[in-house]
């Protein structure tokens, strides 16, 4: 069977304004996160986890946790979700 001819494709060049605007936007987006961001993210994850663990172990003995009752789960999981959302934006 004969081999087909390979056609050259023309090279696409975007308009000048699009190329400059995109490179400036990408430079702004691609900057790494500051050090405090990672510390806050890890702290929120750990605080949420510790809140729930303390509630399970000693929730009956801590007065403000008794008054919060089921809201303790919302506080703990809320802190962990905030840490997870921060982890998605971490660079």
From TrEMBL:
<keyword id="KW-1003">Cell membrane</keyword>
<keyword id="KW-0132">Cell division</keyword>
<keyword id="KW-0131">Cell cycle</keyword>
<comment type="similarity">
    <text>Belongs to the CrgA family.</text>
</comment>
<feature type="transmembrane region" description="Helical">
    <location>
        <begin position="36"/>
        <end position="58"/>
    </location>
</feature>
<keyword id="KW-0812">Transmembrane</keyword>
<dbReference type="GO" id="GO:0051301">
    <property type="term" value="P:cell division"/>
</dbReference>
<keyword id="KW-1133">Transmembrane helix</keyword>
<comment type="function">
    <text>Involved in cell division.</text>
</comment>
<protein>
    <recommendedName>
        <fullName>Cell division protein CrgA</fullName>
    </recommendedName>
</protein>
<feature type="transmembrane region" description="Helical">
    <location>
        <begin position="64"/>
        <end position="86"/>
    </location>
</feature>
<keyword id="KW-0472">Membrane</keyword>
<dbReference type="InterPro" id="IPR009619">
    <property type="entry name" value="CrgA"/>
</dbReference>
<dbReference type="Pfam" id="PF06781">
    <property type="entry name" value="CrgA"/>
</dbReference>
<dbReference type="GO" id="GO:0005886">
    <property type="term" value="C:plasma membrane"/>
</dbReference>
């Amino acid at each position: 069977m004969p081999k087909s001819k390979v056609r050259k494709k023309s090279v696409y060049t975007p308009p000048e304004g699009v190329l400059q605007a995109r490179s400036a936007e990408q430079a702004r987006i691609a900057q790494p996160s500051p050090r405090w961001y990672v510390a806050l993210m890890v702290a929120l994850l750990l605080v949420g986890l510790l809140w729930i663990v303390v509630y399970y172990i000693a929730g009956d003995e801590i007065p403000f946790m008794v008054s919060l009752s089921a809201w303790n789960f919302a506080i703990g999981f809320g802190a962990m979700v905030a840490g997870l959302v921060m982890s998605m934006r971490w660079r």
